[in-house]
Design a protein that fits this description.
Layout (H helix, E strand, L loop, with lengths): L2 E5 L5 H11 L7 E4 L5 H7 L4 E4 L2 H4 L12 H10 L3 H7 L8 H19 L5 E4 L5 H12 L3 E7 L6 E6 L5 E2 L7 H17 L4 H8 L2 H19 L11 H4 L5 H13 L9 E5 L6 H4 L8 H12 L5 E5 L14 H4 L4 E4 L5 H7 L3 E3 L3 H8 L4 E3 L11 E3 L6 H6 L10 H12 L4 E2 L14 H16 L6
Parallel strand pairs: 1-2, 1-4, 2-3, 4-5, 8-9, 9-10, 11-12, 12-13
Antiparallel strand pairs: 5-6, 6-7, 6-14
Helix pairs in contact: 1-20, 4-6, 4-7, 6-7, 8-19
Length: 470
């Protein structure tokens, strides 16, 4: 019998637990891993009979500073299951990495042992875990090690009204559906036939245009304040008290000051010949966790600019227009001093830039998918679904850009329109379902009963590959 597990956060629990119930599971059979004690009130209201796993934050603070730092067996199993090493776990998560190393390492060992006690011996586990915070990565690794499936429902961006079940964190893989779904193939064919002409933006783009940045800033900050009111600074996977003063995604005043400065900043003109490097949102799991060595985007830009300079090709760095407030202005001098880097207008049209660029570079961004579908050369830093395209090359580290540029590797990246269409319809959209999986507090339609049923159907299909519910 398959055991369902949800690693809780804020917002998605209202979608995932009802979807699991629609899939045929009972809440009494659930394992709920609570990231913060703020989740406990939700558990009492909606799943009081579920098995609740609280993480060992208090015990981790008691690390003896003279004890040796070494990964224990459970942590090694978790790392192997998720394909990361201990260093990745220490540096990828934005809150844990700002603690003392001995405390953070103690948490990794204790949390892995604690989680394994809840997972081992239950048979196959279907774990819904977002691959963002460290305990989610540990959970995914241990579930995988013990023969289960760790996944997360996520919109596939193109088309914007469909979602897949992703696996991570070494890039993103799509759960391969064993069921033939003619509707999925039809959706892929209809979409690609019109997209090249219209090139509609992914849903996230349209949503960000409609939502004031100030509203999003306040929402993120208030979420963290609610968590802090319960955990009172003791949670190793939440911000420290001092972070509320200095980090712009926690401090609405600082964020608004950042926005004001960015709106008056003079951006550089686009170089005549350039490689397009759009920055991804940070802190955010897509680049910080899944991007691995590509998480230092400024380093990537410098390596690329140095390699291209002898060829007279510049690097056009574009900030993420709707989340620029997350980065303080002191992030930019390292770009400004480099003679071969142009920091261009964040509101420039990325679609036109990727068409004009010699090639596009992204760690994990959707721009790689868009450029790939247009037949343009793309370098991606992580294994993404579109890495299978002939015009996309995956490089393991930013340093690999140096030989790639020296060999003019982009000139060999080619795929015909028919090859791209075949991949898009039969390998990408085929492995998706109709429905929305977006941040529920921002998109209430996600919690409509019909949408919950669609997500539940997908989870039931995934559970079937593990042996079903009974």
């Amino acid at each position: 019998m398959v055991t369902p597990l949800v690693h809780m956060g804020l917002g998605y629990d209202d979608l995932l637990v009802p979807a699991l119930v629609h899939a045929g599971f009972e809440t009494k059979d659930l394992i709920l891993v609570v990231r913060t004690d703020a989740n406990l009130a939700w558990v009492r209201r909606h799943a009081p009979l579920a098995t609740t796993v609280r993480l060992p934050y208090a015990a981790a603070w008691k690390a003896n500073v003279v004890s040796g730092l070494a990964p224990h067996a459970a942590l090694k199993r978790a790392c192997a299951g998720v394909g990361l090493d201990v260093l990745d776990l220490l540096v990828s998560e934005r809150a844990l990495r700002r603690n003392r190393v001995d405390t953070a390492m103690n948490f990794l060992n204790l949390a892995a042992e604690h989680l394994e006690q809840a997972i081992a011996g239950r048979g196959p586990v279907l774990a819904l875990t977002e691959f963002t915070v460290t305990s989610e990565l540990l959970t995914a690794g241990l579930v995988t090690h013990h023969g289960g499936l760790a996944t997360w429902p996520r919109g596939i961006r193109l088309p914007s009204d469909r979602f897949g079940l992703i696996g991570a964190p070494q890039g993103i893989t799509l759960f391969e559906r064993a069921v033939d779904d003619p509707a999925a193939l039809d959706a892929g064919k209809r979409f690609i036939d019109t997209w090249r002409t219209e090139q509609g933006r992914p849903m996230g783009y349209a949503r960000n245009l409609k939502v004031e940045s100030g509203q999003e800033i306040w929402r993120l900050a208030s979420d963290r304040v609610r968590e802090f009111a319960v955990d009172r600074g003791a949670n190793l996977q939440l911000p420290k008290p001092s972070d509320y003063a200095r980090l712009p995604w926690l401090n609405p005043v600082k964020a608004r000051l950042n926005l004001r400065e960015y709106r008056t900043r003079r951006w550089d003109p686009v170089p005549e010949q350039f490689v397009f490097l759009p920055l991804q949102v940070q802190p955010e799991s897509s680049v910080d966790v899944m991007g691995q060595e590509w998480r230092d985007q400024a380093y990537t830009a410098r390596v690329l600019a140095d390699a291209l300079a002898p060829m007279g090709i510049g690097v056009a760095v574009k900030e993420h227009a709707h989340f620029m407030w997350r980065r303080d202005p002191d992030y930019w001098p390292q770009f400004d001093v480099h003679p071969n880097i142009a920091t261009i207008d964040p509101f420039a049209d990325s679609r036109e830039l990727m068409k004009q660029a010699v090639f596009t570079v992204t760690a994990t961004g959707t721009v790689g998918l868009e450029a790939g579908l247009l037949g343009r050369p793309v370098v991606t830093g992580a294994a993404m679904p579109w890495s299978a395209l002939g015009n996309v090359r995956r490089l393991a580290t930013p340093d690999d850009l140096v030989p790639f540029v020296a060999e003019r590797g982009w000139e060999t990246l080619r795929a015909t329109e028919s090859e791209i269409d075949e991949w898009f319809v039969h390998s990408y959209v085929r492995n998706s379902w109709e429905g929305l999986v977006l941040d529920p507090p921002r998109v209430p339609a996600v919690l409509e009963p019909a949408n919950i049923r669609r997500v539940g159907d997908a989870l039931a299909e995934a559970a079937g590959t593990l042996g079903g519910l009974s």
